[in-house]
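look at this stuff:

>
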Amino acid sequence: MSVALFFAILSLIGLIGYVGIFVALHVLPTGYHPIRHAVSDYAVGQYGSLFRVGLLVSSLGVVFLAIGLTLDPGAPPLAVSQLVFLYLVPAMRLGMVLFRTDLEGEKLTPTGRLHYLFAIAAFAFTYAAISGMTPRLTSVSPWQSADGLLSALQWIALVSLVLLIVTLLPRLRTIFGLFERAFLVSTNLWFITVGICLAVKAT
C-alpha cells in the first residue's frame, strides 16, 4: 500500500464518519431546529460530546486528505497556497472547540465572538481551498472523471456561503442554519469525492 493510499483511506474514514454523526445529530432529540439553529449549537447540551467527536474525526479527515494531496498529486498541479488553506481548516476548527458558541437569543459574549471568528475563518479557508483546487484537480486523472460533480459542489458551496453570510443579518437569522448545513454538506461531499479519486489514483 502506498503512503498516499494510506492517507486517502484514513481521510475517507474520518469524513464519512463525520457525515454519519452529522446525520445522527439531526435525528436525535437535540432540541435544535435544522433551519433556525447553527450547527455549532449541538456542542451545547446533551449531545455535545457527540458533536465534538464529529468535529474531531472530520478535522482529522481533512488533515489526512491534505497530506494525501500533498504527496499525490503534489504541488504542482496544486498550488502550495491551496494546500495551506486546507491545512488551516482543522486549526480553525480547534478554535471553534476551545471557545464555546452563544446559543441563538443569548447575549453575545467575548468567547462567543471568538467562536464566530474561528467559524468564519474555517468556512473561508474551506471555500478558498475548494475553489482553487477544483479547476486544477479536474484537469488531472482520475479527478477529471468527477469534473461535473466537483464543479457542481463548488458552486453549491459558493452560493450557500454567500447566503449564509447574508442570513447573519438579524431579520434573516431564522434561516441561517439551512444555508450553513447546505455549505457543510456540499463541502464534505467535495472532500469525500476528492478522497475517493485520490484512493483510486494511489491504488
